[in-house]
């Protein structure tokens, strides 16, 4: 499954694929625990598929990727809201203070 194939799907289809992939992962883990799984690389492939689906869903939440043709008309007012939300997040983040020796005496003062 490729990301380009997932991006053209609608949200409900992505949800179905997510449920199917999670169920398949559960079954593969169970088979692995019992010792019936012949190819353990299937587990990582399914995990990557789940990650791809989740990535496409999050991109749509943030408005970073194109929506399927049916959903574009519904999201006509959302880009403005997404831009406002991004601006608010950028304003809230302040640079972190550098961790140093705040509150300690310099080494030269301790040596005396």
Question: What is the name of the CATH topology of the domain at 1-63?
Answer: Helix Hairpins
Fraction of residues in H or I helices: 55-70%
pLDDT below 50 for ≥5 consecutive residues: which ranges? none
Determine the strand fraction and express it as a percent band: under 5%
Provide a concise account of the structure shown:
This protein is mostly helical and 112 residues long.
Structural summary, described in words:
The chain is mainly α and 112 residues long. It has a domain at 1-63: Orthogonal Bundle (Helix Hairpins), CATH 1.10.287.310. The chain has helices at residues 3-7, 11-34, 41-62, 69-72, 78-92, 107-111. The protein starts with a helix and ends with a helix.
Secondary structure layout:
Layout: H1 3-7, H2 11-34, H3 41-62, H4 69-72, H5 78-92, H6 107-111
Helix pairs in contact: 2-3
């Amino acid at each position: 499954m490729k990301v380009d194939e997932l991006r053209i799907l609608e949200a409900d289809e992505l949800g179905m694929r997510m449920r199917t992939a999670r169920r398949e992962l559960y079954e593969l883990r169970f088979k692995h625990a019992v010792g019936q799984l012949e190819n353990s690389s299937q587990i990582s492939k399914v995990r990557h598929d789940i990650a791809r689906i989740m990535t496409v869903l999050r991109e749509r939440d943030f408005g970073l990727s194109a929506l399927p043709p049916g959903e574009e008309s519904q999201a006509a007012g959302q880009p403005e809201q997404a831009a406002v939300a991004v601006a608010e997040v950028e304003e809230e983040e302040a640079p972190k203070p550098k961790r140093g020796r705040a509150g300690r005496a310099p080494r030269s003062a301790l040596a005396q």
